[in-house]
Write a structure and sequence with these properties.
The chain contains three helices and seven strands, in the order βαβββββααβ. It is of the alpha+beta class. It has a single domain, classed as TATA-Binding Protein, CATH 3.30.310. The longest helix has 39 residues.
Length: 160
């Protein structure tokens, strides 16, 4: 079992149109930017497209930059990997370090009435809640939103 701190989702798709038309449609709907930072635009995505490869984020203000879509468009289909964007990894990494700091302070200031088993249990529970509820649910919701937008722009069908 492979448990990752930050979730990753990979999807394969089939093109409903020709490759060059799909790439052209993606280019027209993407605001060109080397920095994958959310900003106000009338386009569906922000990012870079090089040949048949792309790195894009959704242009939805406030939440669109959470998921980074990296993919490739081939002759008949392609693939896309959805990962947590790097600035959010740093921010969430700081958030995940808070239970570690709390655990260290509890150990340092441990008095005779506190159980070490209780401290360890609380520490593990905090890590579990942050990773699987906070990060996991946010990633699931926002990645599905980005994939839905990508499907509409590219005119594709997901492979099961």
């Amino acid at each position: 079992m492979d448990i990752k701190v930050f979730p990753v989702k990979e999807k394969m798709f089939r093109l409903l149109d020709e490759q060059h038309k799909t790439l052209d449609r993606l280019s027209r709907r993407t605001e060109k930017s080397e920095s994958l930072i959310s900003k106000s635009t009338d386009k569906s995505f922000i990012g870079k497209i090089e040949g048949n490869n792309f790195q894009i984020i959704s242009s939805s203000m406030g939440r669109g930059a959470f998921c980074l879509l990296e993919g490739e468009i081939g002759e008949n289909g392609g693939s896309v990997a959805i990962v947590v964007n790097r600035p959010f990894k740093y921010l969430l990494g700081i958030f995940l370090s808070l239970p570690f700091l709390g655990f260290i302070f509890e150990i340092i200031f441990l008095d005779g009435n506190t159980s070490i088993v209780g401290i360890v249990f609380a520490f593990l529970l905090q890590i579990f809640i942050i990773r699987f509820f906070f990060i996991g649910f946010a990633f699931k919701y926002l990645s599905n939103e980005s994939l839905s937008r990508l499907k509409d722009v590219l005119d594709i069908e997901w492979n099961e």
